Amino acid sequence: MGTSAEEPPSPPPPLEWDQSSSDGEEPSPSTSISFDRDRHVAYLEMMYQMLPSYYQSQEINRLTLAYFTISGLDILGALDRVDKDAVASWVLSFQAHPGDKNQLNNGQFYGFQGSRSSQFPLGCDGVLIHNLSHLASTYCALATLKTVGYNLSNVDSKSILTSMRNLQQPDGSFLPIHIGAETDLRFVYCAAAICFMLGDWNGMDREKAKEYIIKCQSYDGGFGMVPGSESHGGGTYCAVASLRLMGFMEDDILSTSGASSVIDLPLLLEWCLQRQAADGGFQGRPNKPSDTCYAFWVGAVLRILGGYKLIDGKALREFLITCQSKYGGFGKFPGELPDIYHSYYGCTAFSLLEEPGLNSLSFELGITDVAALGI
Amino acid sequence: MHGRPRKAPVPEDEAASAAKAEKLRALQSQVLSNHRHKIYTEEALELSTRLVEINPECYTAWNYRKLAFEHNLTRSDSNPNSVKSILEEELRVVEIALRQNFKSYSAWHHRKWVLSKRHSSIEKELWLLEKFQSADPRNFHAWSYRRFIAALMDRSDVDELEYTQNLIDKNISNYSAWHNRSVLLSNLMKKNVEGFTEKDEVLTKEYELVREALFTDEDDQSGWFYHLWLLDQTVKAKSPLLVSSWPAHGSDLILFQDRCLDASSSPFNIFQFDSGTFPLILYFSQAVEGVNSSTVNVEYGSNLNQGLVWKPLSTYKSRAAQAWITHKIGKLTLARLLTAYDALMSSGKLVHSQEILGLYIDLMKLDPPHYQYYKNEHSVVLLQQVMSSRESLLSRCFHYRDLTSSSRGYPMCLRLNKLSLSRIGSFAKLLWVQMLDLSHNELQSIEGLEALQLLIHLSLSENKLSSFTALEPLRQLKSLKSLDISYNEIGARSIDTTRYLCSSPLSNSIGNEWEQDRILVDGVSMTNYWEAFFVLKGLNLTQLDVVGNAIADENFTLFLVRVLPTLKWLDGVQLNLF
Fold first, then answer.
1. φ, ψ dihedrals at A142, nearest 5°
2. A125: buried, middle or exposed (CB in 10 Å: 19+, 13-18, 0-12)?
């Protein structure tokens, strides 16, 4: 034991917080009613193989139905049921191509058409007589291509993006087709998602689109489809997802106090949370019955904002199970027969609830994370 | 596609269904052929009518009809009867489509399009709308169309307001009617229309109207949301306000370094520091930009200080933040903060907080789906109550003593433990805190904590923090020396790595820094601890407690020792110096 002159001084003793142990919390019992994955796979696979005759009237939206079916199978981890190359070729066949580069300034939109039945044959000079490219079909086309792993750099993005500018209106909103139609938030979303997936924002004026979105926020915090319209679950999703995709909203924004926002966030949060009804499901608007699909439209908004933990997940799950059909798929209301639209959004809702075995979603793009990242 | 009810297919319908499909295919190709060849005869138009009846969202058919309409209109412009019949026919077809699906976007749009061409049948439109809206008062397409027609007819907002009043009188829970009322009233007040210039009078009348709704059916959401909006109109604070600062405006500050504190000294104006500098902090009611030495004056003693650099405290690299900080270099014995650019808000006495707390507790019981939300609000109000007066705060101040040495003291500790807090809310009144005990609560996030720039010791033990990402505000606490996050839920759930490892443009905070500083410790990849790395690496902790979290194992200990070179105590165990 020599002199301790060279010994380093002992550090000050640690601060002793008052650490009495508290009772542990009881884990919540896991729900016994199950998500019937296999049956949903069977339902969607059947739709993939052949659409039942009652979908004939939806022929014009065939690409959209394909998106629901194929992305649905992807979420369920059953993409092996799909012939990816065949799907990619089929989707690409709907793309409208300009005759030459000069045509990109003729005011038309050169995107994807929704179905074979809205695709006119080329004229004798090789030019499209009627170009019915539609923004929603273009979104569904790109989303489907990404889902089957097709590399979008092979798509003629320049034509799509350059001509898409023709669809944007002075107030920032978008027409879905150049021949004229209604303009509302749905198509702002499609445009934003298209630019995001193609990795190029030259297709739209983001600032103007943002201004339009802000005008759609209603006095109660939600977003209507057009300025002045009542708040609506679908409109709210389109607004928030668009802002996020365009880079106007930070990740998990509610967890950051003092983060400035272009929209009224606390009111929006309140509106979204109040959409969960006493039966556990989500409604699209106040005083409306709960509907399967709003578990995604409103639930995804809450996820994007970082407020999803504030919902009653258990009650939502129980509601969705009552909408689950014994034939596979989901219906709109409890006990109803399934349809593709509600089946897809039922699956996305369960992915939001982090159901084991389901692939995670990119909430703002509407496809799986894996598809979005292009892995 | 959304609102279409369906019946289950019955065997004998199968054959009929197949036949129908065959006819539909034929119909579609005929219409498209007519479209392509620009055939606009009556027979051709009739085919398109059948198509939109089957699918009102068939935009190709509507497009064809628009072209046909214009073509036929041009041909018969001299004959007013022809024009009239063409118009009426078009409106009739839209009605047919709407009967199939009164939520069809395309059908409503077509009707608007037709009417925007010629105005002759407008009066009928209002009548039609009234029929529609009594059948389904929530149809937002109809409301949007109503606004369009009202504008076309130049109908006054006042008349439209009366219409909403009629609907509300018939059914007080008509949410759409209330919504439209808010839009109309906003317009009337903004344009200063006669009868709506006195905002107070207008709002008072509205309050009476909505009170009726609330009494009639208190469970109905319509009245409550409208009431919220009225409150917002009444209380709107347009510009941000300076809520508080540290040091407080006009205060005298006592600084000390190491000696033990007299237990009776007030913690609000005392500051223990050993670095020779201390910060100045401004806290606003909302995120602001533009805090700099030309907008803010700092005066101490008789000296006016210039050239201070203000930094926003925000977790993202944004220019706006609620809390702003600057450091004063050099020794100061007294400091005075002059009024900043905005006036100080007078602090209201929290008279109603007990009532509010009771209400939230009731709500938690009565509205279980929204339990967590009310719990958060309850926590916020509870804390506001605690912070509402000096006495209340002082009653929670506790004097820690260094048990081994009576000459070493700790700053005063504010104890906010065991309050079931799930959320903290505003930190405006806590800027002076150097030692904070938030243990034994239910915190899932510590948002806003970065404002407590003077914090040296912090306990978050026994809470519900589930990740290091939730601890991100700690990154900004450069003075923090001891941190207790024991017995939380960090590491209990697997992290969704795909969201962050690939630098997605959506996640703009992490990405680059991780790439440069990635470390390998004893061959163990630190990929699992990138969240912890991001939060801890800039801190100079001497003491850390992590026991009781799923993430705390041997590998994690190795990691911590590497990332925190200044660490002397880990989980109460003294670390050997390497």
1. -65, -40
2. exposed
A220 and B321 within 8 Å at the Cβ level: the answer is no
Question: With an 8 Å Cβ cutoff, are B572 and A287 in contact?
Answer: no
pTM for the full predicted model: 0.66
Neighbours of B51 (CB within 10 A): 25
- Contacting residues of A for B496, CB less than 8 Å apart: 360, 369
Strand locations in B276-329 (E): 278-288, 298-300, 303-305, 311-313, 321-328
Longest CA–CA separation in chain A, Å: 104
Q: Which residues of B touch A373 (CB under 8 A)?
A: 498, 502, 504
The residue among A54, A133, A169, A257 with the most chain B CBs within 10 A of its CB, best to mutate, is A257
Q: What is the pLDDT of residues B96-138, one digit of tens each?
A: 999 888 888 899 999 998 888 865 667 788 888 888 888 888 8
**Beta-carbon separation of B461 and A17 below 8 A:** yes
- The H or E element spanning position A211 is helix A206-215
Dihedral angle computed from the Cα positions of residues B439, B443, B445 and B448, in that order, rounded to the nearest 10 degrees: -60
A5 Cβ partners below 8 Å, 6+ apart?
A: none
Q: What is the per-residue pLDDT across A70-91, written as a single tens digit (0 to 9) for each? A: 999 999 999 999 999 999 999 9
Asked if A312 and B321 come within 8 Å (Cβ–Cβ), the reply is no
Q: Which residue has the tokens 């009024």?
A: B339
Q: How far apart are CA B28 and CA B50, in angstroms?
A: 10
Nearest-by-CA chain B residue for A279: B369
